Amino acid sequence: MDLEGLEVEEREREDFAGYKLRPTLIVYARSEEDVVRVVKYARERRIPLVPWGAGTSLTGATSCEGCILLDLSKMDKILEINDVDWYVRVQPGVNLARLNEELERKGFFLPPDPASSFLCSVGGAVVEGSGGMRAVKYGSFKEWVLAVRVVLADGTAVKLGEPLRKNRAGYDLVHLMVGSEGTLGVLTEAWLRITPLPRKKVITVMAFLRDSEAAANVILGLRKARVLPEFSEYMDVDVIKALNRHLSAGLKESEGGVLLIAVEEDQLDDVLNVVKVNSQELVMAEGEEAEKLYSLRAQAAIALKAEAAGAKFLAEDVVVPVSKLPEAMMKLKQMETKYGVRMPVIAHIGDGNLHPNIMVREDASATQLFEEVARMAVEMGGSVTGEHGVGVQKVNVMREQVLRSNGERVLSLMLGIKRLFDPEGILNPGKYVEAAAASRRLT
Amino acid sequence: MDLEGLEVEEREREDFAGYKLRPTLIVYARSEEDVVRVVKYARERRIPLVPWGAGTSLTGATSCEGCILLDLSKMDKILEINDVDWYVRVQPGVNLARLNEELERKGFFLPPDPASSFLCSVGGAVVEGSGGMRAVKYGSFKEWVLAVRVVLADGTAVKLGEPLRKNRAGYDLVHLMVGSEGTLGVLTEAWLRITPLPRKKVITVMAFLRDSEAAANVILGLRKARVLPEFSEYMDVDVIKALNRHLSAGLKESEGGVLLIAVEEDQLDDVLNVVKVNSQELVMAEGEEAEKLYSLRAQAAIALKAEAAGAKFLAEDVVVPVSKLPEAMMKLKQMETKYGVRMPVIAHIGDGNLHPNIMVREDASATQLFEEVARMAVEMGGSVTGEHGVGVQKVNVMREQVLRSNGERVLSLMLGIKRLFDPEGILNPGKYVEAAAASRRLT
């Protein structure tokens, strides 16, 4: 097995989060056959193989030292949009925003929307089990992947599952691949469920909040009123300032930050009732105006990246039970003070998914703060990662969570699955589950 | 390890589908500790252990010859209804209809509704990955299980997952348990997602159809109009007759059968446009009247059971892509004629999930017909089971499907997972994946 005829490259790369990649070789795949060849090549030579979609992992999932980097960005075809069976079949390299544009033309959408839609690949979103801005109503990618094709570690290409919402023929291997972070197989195709665009008028409420407790109070109020929003996003005052500074957003810099809550018209009164008492100022938007607000929120991470001015910053991704939001938001403020570092918070607050961003170069105290935030989530019955995954960044805290909340046997079962799918340790080795089970500290 | 102090029984049982169970011993568990004791007891003595919820499996999932039958029906507590974090925590023996009554009192529901809700246990629905009448909009149990507690084959009790909609800390073992049919662990607790009851007015349209092509045409028409119904159910004329005969339903015995389609008010016109041209008669209902129709549909299997007059009948559970419905419905009619047996069809037709019921005692030709129906589904890119699972009934056809559609490696990976979780083959052995991989023919 050699790589003749395949497009290869020898150079270093850096991903969106600033992780350095030093592959032995970058190989571009244009078909599943190419993937099979590269996997077999890597396996014969026992070289770690790391799949790359668009490089937007925030946890170093594609980090690589002496690996073969398998670049799937040129496998970017939308193979089928089925408007009767309501699925789309795609190659992994398709850009997620582009996919949704195509779907919208036919009256459909694929709801989960990592704020990086305009950058990320569908394949990355699938294997990372990405979530994002509409998960509060529609769930994360976990709930939208029907079936996949993967190349296994021995070079066998297989299909897992069927493009059907109901299929009970065998154990659910599809959901093992969702969130496998390239460690169990290389994704070459996915069938994703699609659904009609909402028929009802959706209204976006932008609420500039009085104080730091307001955001959590609003979300609890909405839960009690049984409001099911399309999305409910939060940015604190530091994030607003970064948006104003770097993207000329022109948003009011209210002390308590800003909430963006979109709901169908018949739930609007309930939202306003809850929001009004907690806000300094309210704006309501629909149509294009609402889309502008949504895309501003989507660019918050870009604004923070600009704010970091080239320095790497640590993006947290913890989840706390919604009922624990008031306590969690308070504790984050306390930690910011205790460590004396800025930690602007972006949040999919409606589902308790918080992204405090530690705005310092990685060092001992940043790592300590990072772990303290994660530990808080675990102690509250939450999770150290809602959607970014584990990669190398969250190995220790994932280990802590699983040991504390699930038990050591569970970690060893996960490792058993890795060994079952990849006995020789070829696929993205030494990270995620494998690393967490080995208890090695990675940076 | 002994069973002192546990409630035990020595007798035979029959499940809802008529499978005979001849356990060495029936043990009633009242707590997770009891389950741990029984699993350890079985393991020490190498006796197969079969968990029992309410005995409503249709595939012989709890069949047992010389097993220890672990009866979980007395673990029937609703442990927590959390109306802020939107989950319910239950023991496996809770009746599903009872659970939904409790939830409704607080303004919530757990949408997936196997037509056997009034009989089945939540635990059974989870480990079978049950679907039912609202899956067309809300999906099956797969989409509603957040986390579980299970007792593993070595007697270790663990939690898998977290009661959070977003959690990416590790491989998804929760979805391995959903649909594991008691072969990977014994479920002792589940956290299930709940959602607010619909706010909008829902209207049920009952359409008595002109001819046998009408049902499929209506569903295709609804798909093209991008209508997303609450449910869309079908019963053919033989099912109507059984309902009239045994439950005095008083339904019109229209040649093309009857559709029950429920939609939010703003989609009603689209439904009527599609339905009218295909129907002899239309009835519209809401509120209590609609509930009566829904519960009539839920009792269709009971009516067929009465029709069978004590004889066992074969309940199919195939899925075809919605786009293949016209062809599938036609082929079912042809097979009925070819074999000269009655095969009344109940269907969650909106998601292509068909239940032709072969109304003869099991014999060679019934088995042949059963397999022909399943094969048709596989050839159409469908599945041999949408929601009933595999048990012993569908071992051969599941094997065919996986070999044909997924590949032999996939079957061996599934078997690898069984061995990983249950190396000594204690948990519900010799069925489902294990049997399909071994290619033994079970009856």
TrEMBL record, chains A, B:
Keyword Cytoplasm among UniProt keywords: no
Residue ranges of every copy of the FAD-binding PCMH-type domain listed in the record: 19-197
EC number: 1.1.2.4
GO biological process: lactate catabolic process
Keyword Calcium recorded: no
Cofactor(s) for this UniProt protein: FAD
Keyword annotations: FAD, Flavoprotein, Oxidoreductase, Transit peptide
GO molecular function: D-lactate dehydrogenase (cytochrome) activity; D-lactate dehydrogenase (NAD+) activity; FAD binding
InterPro entries in alphabetical order: FAD-bd_oxidored_4_C (IPR004113), FAD-bd_PCMH (IPR016166), FAD-bd_PCMH-like_sf (IPR036318), FAD-bd_PCMH_sub2 (IPR016169), FAD-linked_Oxase-like_C (IPR016164), Oxid_FAD_bind_N (IPR006094), Vanillyl_alc_oxidase_C-sub2 (IPR016171)
PANTHER family: D-LACTATE DEHYDROGENASE, D-LACTATE DEHYDROGENASE, MITOCHONDRIAL-RELATED
Family note: Belongs to the FAD-binding oxidoreductase/transferase type 4 family.
Protein name per Swiss-Prot or TrEMBL: D-lactate dehydrogenase (cytochrome)
Organism: Sulfodiicoccus acidiphilus
